Amino acid sequence: MHIPDGYLGPQTYAVLDLLMVPIWVIAARKVKRTLRARQVPLLALGSAFSFVLMMFNVPVIGGSTGHAVGAVLIAIILGPWAAVIAVSIALVIQAGLFGDGGITALGANCFNMAVVAPFVGYYLHRLLAGDAPSGRRRIVAAGAAAYVGLVAAAIVAGVELGLQPYLNHTASGQALYAPYGLGVAVPAMALEHILFFGWIEAAVTMGVVAALARSEPALLEMKPAARPLRWLWAALAVLILLTPIGALAPGTAWGEWSVPQIKEAIGYVPADFARLGGVWKAAMPGYLTPGVNNTLLGYLVAAIVGTVLVVGIALAIGALLARPPGGRAAVAGEPRAPRSRRADLAAAARPARRGGRSLARKTADAVAGAMADVLRNEDVAARRGLLQRLDPRVRLLTLMLFAVTATLVHSIWVLLALIAVTLALAVASRVAVASFERKVWLSAGLFALVIALPSALAWFTPGPAALRLGPLTFTEPGLLGVATLVTRVVAAAGFALLVVWTMRWPDLLRALTALRMPDVVVATLAMTQKQILALLTVVEQIHLARESRTLARVSAGADRDWVTERMAFVARKSMKTAEDVHDAMLSRGFTGAMPSLVRPRMGGADWVWTLAGMALCALVLFADRLAGP
Amino acid sequence: MGAAPQTPAAPAAPDFELTAVRHEYRAGGASLTGIDLTIRSGEHVAVVGANGTGKSTLLKMLDGLVFPSAGEIRAFGLPLTEDALEEQAYRRDFRARVGYVFQEADVQLFCSDAFDELAFGPIQLGLSEDEVRRRVREAAEELHIEKLLDRPPYTLSGGEKKRVAIASIITMRPRVLLLDEPTSALDPRSQVWLLDLLADWRREGRTVVMATHDLSAAAEAADRIVVLSEEHTLVADGTPEEVLTQRELLLAVNLIHEHTHRHASTAHRHAHAHGAGADPLATHGHTSAIAEVQQQRASGGVPAAPTSP
After folding, report:
1. Measured in Å, how far apart are chain A's first and last C-alpha atoms?
2. What are the per-10-residue average pLDDT scores of chain A (629 residues)?
3. Which residues of chain B fall below pLDDT 70?
4. Which of B98, B103, B107 best probes binding to A when mutated, by most A CB atoms within 10 angstroms?
5. Chain B residues with beta carbon closer than 8 angstroms to that of A590
6. Is B110's Cβ below 8 Å from some Cβ in A?
């Protein structure tokens, strides 16, 4: 559900980035009141747990695996406001340390996964669990809450993506950002999570809550509700009642506006709306009785097909990318991850399993890969390149300015020029160019291409045909839209990756301190990153220990039980560590602030670079207006 | 305590005095009970006991991190209570005097790099920037970690982490050092280095209280050993000779166990101690833990213990 840079237009991400600021401030105040001095270690370990939770592979069906977000689980353990901070920090670290999820889209990702999911899930859990401190009801309530919370977050993400074609398009109907309208994006995101990821989330949350209820019930203690929750029941009943009414009343409910209404509202008819209505009328005339909203039915069918396609394609890409163990880290010119020997051992004694690597090995490899990434980044960031020589604040802000510029540019040619800038900066900063380009083009670019390519079909984007492949017709504005998205995503990903690869984590923290980020936030970020690495080591060892004792195949159900048991173990360990770290801080006279003595200083080169960077961005935007989309 | 003086009493007072101390994590289950213990300035005391006997709890109590459920602790002549530590002047003074090195360095190294780690304590004490830098430099030199200062903790080895963790306490210039399982997770060379460091501290007159189940380290580094039983009580208190020769006692508290060896054609039994680290006792042929210590003391390998406390 991580939205990368380049999919959301500036109006959308700017609004969500700005929206998150007061939410964080309120959350920080609430958390400060409830957690007091323990807030830093507790939040850090909560964030680290949230991050590490996403690293656990959970078996689903047919040998495939997925991972949970854990936002609702964190909300159940720490409360919704602490979950806002913990999950946000986990997302910031994913973006800043591992390059997952965009810089400009950070607000959107935080809003979906760190606000919508925890709050929906937390209150639903309270409602369904009632006063039951433990037992079956509590566990089922947690599972249902996790499922609904995640689906709600997915729907909001679908709305954010689905708004893009209406907000940003050219006169010829070519989409500039995410190409699918609400009618496709919302059902696709919703169904993907209703059918697939929601179940993982529910299974994981139930498993961990059940294991914690057995071993550490104190962690799950619910504070009595400040106000009676009856209003929540009422709200839920109203929502349920409204749903069928919305479905039956054509043209009124969310996402079901009729074509003239949309034209009236935004002065532009998104292509898929106009098309789909007609397509389904033509394809299934016999099934559609007059008076039933056939557009909605059309969307639903399209969404189901779309979901199956997206999940299928994602699984296929996953299978393709999952090369034999040991192969992935062996990139020329990069420090080799310490996994090859283990991989050899594993290759010799690998249990026969459908889908190649066992569950335990998959997770252990992913964890080892993540840690190798961090160490590799550290190594690149320590080289004396152009960007590394700059003041960390200047480095961070100018690269972010470039990333924002990439999301503002409409012309493919200007975007290609920006990609050239990322390449030049990578070379000047002594980054291994081959792996840099592989990362931005293969993981970010290819994904955007696969996702966006169907939107170039004449069905979605009408216009002069540019390419015919059998029954499929790709239109000129459609293909241009896809190309714009892919180049923008690659350019933005390039700048984001330069941040990740040229900033040492302590530098990034010092830059944030120098930029007047509150001490508590920086301290929590610092501790989270450290604890993530400590917890990852534990997770890797847990999985390797399992792998070393696994000889025969285990059922997916048994695997799932084992994984959730281990997650509960990591949760307990996290909370215990939080207590210990707090003790260690108190022992050294912790007074609440964590100032650093190393303060960055602006030199002449920093000013030159800042001005040059700003001038370049202005020039790029000017050229873009001249070039036109 | 009302109008208690803000500074600890004259140095004549013992560093710590525990009277009938009991501690419970949950109501009913005691993790320590009936502890009477006095620790004088400059003493090197090893608290030994099997896993789960309350060694770490005792250390945390001495550091004012957990507090007795019953009984009293006095530190430097003043009561050590949660309320007392709320007072800023008292807390500052106490934290500066007492340093705690945690068993797991990962817990203790919470800053983003080693420099910040070493500077954390002095900054919290409110020292000037110059003074903080001076102390960081000196501690780094003392522990030979000058080259590690700009490294994030996760790039350090286990031994390097321990050095940074100890240096981060040394920058606060504590008179008392509390060490939880200091030799665990250290390779033999680092263990030797640690024992040398403890000998330096003895010369400097620093008080050391270490919790361990490594009897050889206790014998070598401490001039007094107290033993905690699995019933969470204090069952022995004396010099290493006095304590380590009580074979029945050590067997009863699970610190040593009978061990049968086949040696050539003859099998024989002897008492066997298991240290956390390299277990030097087990590698020294078939001498017992006690004989080993006596041998070392006779050869002058371990400084003689002062007479009874």
Report:
1. 29
2. 86 91 87 65 79 70 65 88 88 79 88 93 86 74 91 91 84 79 83 84 85 74 55 58 40 37 42 40 35 45 49 48 35 34 36 53 74 74 83 88 91 91 91 86 84 82 81 85 90 89 80 74 77 78 75 69 77 76 81 64 84 90 79
3. 1-12, 26-28, 259-309
4. B107
5. 124
6. yes
Is residue A387 domain-resident?
yes
- Interface probe for A, chosen from B56, B87, B154 (most Cβ of A below 10 Å), is B154
Question: Distance (Å, rounded) from C-alpha A81 to C-alpha A85?
Answer: 7
Number of residues that make up chain B:
309
User: Structurally, what CATH architecture does the domain formed by B16-239 represent?
Assistant: 3-Layer(aba) Sandwich (3.40)
Does residue A228 form part of some domain?
A: no
Q: What is the number of structural domains in chain A?
A: 1
Q: Is residue A621 part of a domain?
A: yes
Interchain contact, A530 vs B168, CB within 8 Å? no
Pick the closest to residue B189 from B278, B79, B118, B85 (CA basis): B278
| Complex ipTM | 0.73
Q: Is A589–B112 a contact, with Cβ atoms under 8 angstroms apart?
A: no
In the numeric block, which tokens belong to residue B290? 């006690």
Positive/negative CA dihedral, B147, B153, B157, B159 = positive
B-chain residues within 8 Å CB-CB of A583?
60, 65, 102
A chain contacts of residue B107, beta-carbon cutoff 8 Å:
577, 580-581, 584
Q: What is the pTM (predicted TM-score) of this model?
A: 0.69
Question: Do B65 and A587 make contact, defined as CB atoms within 8 angstroms?
Answer: yes
The answer to whether A272 touches A460, Cβ cutoff 8 Å, is yes
CB contact under 8 A, B116 and A374: no
**Nearest-by-CA chain A residue for B100:** A587
Q: Contact at 8 Å (CB) between A419 and A490?
A: yes
A424 is in which domain, residue-wise?
A: 372-510+603-627
Residue A293 in any domain: the answer is: no
